[in-house]
Amino acid sequence: MEGHMAVDQERHARIVESLAVSPFDAVVCGSAPEVLLLTGYWPVMSASVAVFTSDGEVKVIVPEDEVELAEKTTEADIIPYKPAGLHALHPTIQSLRAPLIGLLRQLGTNHTKIGLQLEQGVGPASYAVSTQFRSSLPKLLSELHPGAEYIACDEMLESLKAVKTAKELEWMQKAALVAAAGFAPANGLIRAGLRESEVAAALQAAFESAQAAESVQRTSGYFFCMSGPNSAKAAAAYARTRQRVLEEGDLVMIHANTCADGYWTDITRTFTVGKPSERQVAMRAAIDEARHAGLRAIHPGVKAREVDQATRSVMRSHGFGDAFKHATGHGVGFAAANPNGLPRIHPLSPDVLEAGMTFNVEPAAYFDDYGGMRHCDLVAVTADGVDTLTKF
Amino acid sequence: MEGHMAVDQERHARIVESLAVSPFDAVVCGSAPEVLLLTGYWPVMSASVAVFTSDGEVKVIVPEDEVELAEKTTEADIIPYKPAGLHALHPTIQSLRAPLIGLLRQLGTNHTKIGLQLEQGVGPASYAVSTQFRSSLPKLLSELHPGAEYIACDEMLESLKAVKTAKELEWMQKAALVAAAGFAPANGLIRAGLRESEVAAALQAAFESAQAAESVQRTSGYFFCMSGPNSAKAAAAYARTRQRVLEEGDLVMIHANTCADGYWTDITRTFTVGKPSERQVAMRAAIDEARHAGLRAIHPGVKAREVDQATRSVMRSHGFGDAFKHATGHGVGFAAANPNGLPRIHPLSPDVLEAGMTFNVEPAAYFDDYGGMRHCDLVAVTADGVDTLTKF
Fold this sequence. Notes:
The structure is a homodimer. By secondary structure, chain A is α+β, with helices and mostly antiparallel strands. Chain A contains 13 helices and 17 strands.
């Protein structure tokens, strides 16, 4: 394989380093976030396959109508393929056969241990539909290159994804900036009489028409609005906008998961309709204090669970220990929300913080039949502390 | 297993029928569209697993915070599980172990051939992130129930998904109705000076705040705007909104993929900024005529490729044969766009139309550096012809 370098040299070097101490001679990935990690390209239809060898060679097989996009963000060697069109009628995996044969031939007998994504993971929505290779990619590889051994490399990929490079941090900042445009009108907009769906739609529109998106090829994302008792349900693993009409005195939670060219955010702000009640003031005071305690605890070398303890003990001291029903955070970046994304800011987490890690800090209090309040920031660990990417 | 019936008796009967002539004693599915097919429930996080046996028993393992939603649409036996929370820190698949053990014990030795989704497929975006089991589900099943044989059942599922039941057709109609709300403002909105992203955002907002959504638990979807030369690029497998400013004389293509409780649409309309040019009038005349020819060709028993021939020959007769760069359509419903979704309305398609099939009819003409026009309807095959679900 001729020498091609991924555009992000820091990332390239880290992958080479990880491969050097791994059992893998190469990794082959067909999922969008991992193709982004290995090559810098975020596939639209999840129908691209990246190969990264221990020699530092990077190639990516891309459907021909995505080549124009791929060229803008990767310097990996792009191998275009023709997915089924008017000339043929077969599943995408069959179109990958020919380019994979060429690629595997180049790998040769020096690459006999190949890492694949085989374990359960979490994938972001890259488009309205996405290709899922399931067992077809491992099966095709075994058929084309039967001499090799195929081993799960999910753990290595998760570790690599956890710590962002300087360039990836720039992308995360851009993603947070684009998301901010969606939150900007919230304070002025939220009022009694509007339906949750109207609020969510207005913020979604502000996000989608944001000028900030000009430095980005593709943005996408979701804004949710949950009001009154519905905001208490936001303790669940998912958010859901309903048709409830906002009332005076409501807590109104705005939750967003947005994306800029493959880099995701996880952000929540909570508003009140009208003057906050004493109870709401008390909730906000606790959450603000917990948030600052969490942020202060963040340093390279610190155990992730200490950050959780920092926020949780504040919530507890305010009498909101039981109301804070979930972990303080989880890794965010190559996906918006992955409870097992590293680092896990969780009471039981064995993870240790490193500079470049990005995650959310989301102290919250939920009371069934009343409402919930959450403040969720996206942060990056720096050399000497923390950078809050969500500066609003 | 005690008797529980999926809410859609017609669907239940068809699955039992398909299993009876299949090699499978049961199917086990972890992907959202197939869980919807088997149980009537569309999982939020794709972390649910459905089991349907040849005896007609249906069970679905659901994360506890989705049970409230699941109960509204399925009468299958719901087995709740606790995904990792504050008490534990492990991947979802590990939480499935206990409920799966119980389920597999009930299956017993009578169910030794189990159908799994192993082939490449296309999955809709059910949420900002979704669980992907990859090889972990087959692996766990083999470990828990090693006596069974696990065989790909993807083909059977694709056939089942192709033909909708009366209840599923009602959902498809609802989905099309909700989507219509997003298209409604387009004609009045589109004008020179707006950016594509502003147009897309406004239509997205109209869609998301639609009152029509009240009869639906969850709607989601994407509106795209591609103008001028960008509209020619819509011949690709994906749409992309950019920051281009609309100009007088532009073709403006609005493409949407929307969803109502798991039932998807694929719809496109094309507008002109200002008075259409002679060329644009000629394109529209050809596409209208092709569309009607396609719709007229649709009847149960007809070969899907004859519908493609009907539209294609009209486009050719207008001199737009080469400009019509893709197939006339593909199955739509359990996903928005799957080039291999049945029936494939494609020149090489071996598929035969049946009443209840839903697909798109999308005659189009694309000219590089100028623009593209496409009219994409969502239709259902009826006993004696066709019903256009996109009545706008």
